[in-house]
Design goal:
Layout: E1 3-5, E2 12-14, E3 16-19, H1 30-42, E4 47-49, H2 58-70, E5 78-83, H3 97-111, E6 116-121, H4 130-142, E7 146-151, H5 156-169, E8 176-177, H6 187-192, H7 194-200, E9 203-206, H8 235-242, H9 244-262, H10 267-276, E10 283-286, H11 291-298, H12 309-319
Parallel strand pairs: 3-4, 3-10, 4-5, 5-6, 6-7, 7-8, 8-9, 9-10
Antiparallel strand pairs: 1-2
């Protein structure tokens, strides 16, 4: 396991990290959560990702129970939460100072830690001024309850506005973004955010590197009964897969499988290593519901040398979706 700086900060994250979206509280119970986290930690993973919106907080509760049982030294791992979807009442959602603050306290209780290493605004909130959110995050950092704050799926303009507000009012700016990034979703990371890496030192903790499992190849011949697409609440994912656009994606996945095989790689390993090949990626968040699945994903690190420039060129030839370079004025 190698470690990368989170943008321009001094914090170093494992190049593969472990997240709980879809799995904890849905497919994984307490004992399995503890086992999977221990497996990841023993492999060198030091960042564990979570959010208040994952199973209405149950995911954080499971992770907190696991952390308490594993008794790792607190200075040996990084844990996160995200704020936006906390409940149905108006004061339980969004990025108001009230919800940002109270959601942080709730996450601390569920995760059983005294501070959050990373705290993300899970989505932009058009009803709350960005200055209010920046001030709320700055307050939490000054209180020692949060060490670094960032965003998830914000636009480049919104991130820039947050930095301007922070600079103008001498507040702590966001230092990381958590965008979706994989062979199919490239525009934000490679295009929209390109000016932000050098300007602000933006770090990225990317999610869905396997495109919700599509890039494993397991959907090439239909939807398996034990896949996330059969879970209640994820009908949208199944509908996307069975659409015309979804079928076009599967055609590309089959072509990518051929590229992977010629390189001596599995398709999941090719897809994960492709994400890591981007130096702007601080860490790739893995998700797994089984030990064998996690072990296989982690094993991709053993095959970095196979991702040659020739293989990367072959991947580009299949995908044909490299974002255009951003205009500079």
């Amino acid at each position: 396991m190698d470690y990368r700086r989170l943008g321009k900060t001094g914090l170093k994250l494992s190049e593969f990290s472990f997240g709980s979206w879809v799995t904890f509280g849905k497919q994984v119970d307490g004992s399995d959560a503890r086992s999977l986290m221990a497996q990841a930690y023993d492999a060198g993973v030091n960042f564990f990702d979570n959010a208040e919106g994952y199973e209405a907080g149950a995911s954080e509760t499971l992770m907190g129970e696991a952390l308490a049982a594993l008794k790792w030294s607190r200075d040996s791992y990084v844990v996160s939460s995200k704020v936006f979807w906390g409940g149905e009442k108006p004061t339980q959602r969004g990025l108001s100072a009230k919800h940002v603050t109270e959601a942080c306290h709730a996450a601390l209780r569920r995760l059983r830690v005294e501070h959050l290493d990373l705290y993300f605004c899970h989505r932009p909130d058009i009803d709350t001024p960005i200055e209010e959110t920046v001030r709320a995050m700055d307050n939490l950092i000054r209180q020692g309850k949060v060490l670094y704050w960032g965003t998830s799926e914000w636009s480049a303009q919104q991130i820039t506005e947050a930095h301007v507000m922070a600079r103008t009012h001498h507040l702590t700016p966001p230092v990381m973004e958590q965008p979706q990034y994989n062979l199919f979703e490239r525009q934000k990371v490679e295009g929209d955010y390109a000016p932000l890496y050098d300007t602000f030192g933006l770090g990225t903790t990317i999610w869905s590197p396997l495109a919700s499992g599509i890039l494993t190849g397991k959907y090439n011949d239909g939807i398996p009964n034990d896949s996330r697409m059969t879970l209640p609440g994820y009908e949208w994912l199944r509908d996307m897969m069975t659409s015309e656009a979804g079928q076009a994606r599967l055609d590309k996945v089959r072509a990518l499988a051929t590229v992977a095989a010629e390189a001596g790689l599995s398709l999941p390993h090719l897809s994960l290593l492709w994400c890591l090949a981007n130096p702007r990626v601080s860490t790739v968040i893995l998700g797994a519901s089984r030990a064998s699945q996690l072990a296989d994903n982690l094993a991709a690190l053993e095959h970095k040398a196979k991702l040659t420039p020739e293989v990367l060129a072959a991947v580009e030839a299949v995908m044909g979706n490299r974002p255009a370079a951003p205009q500079r004025f």
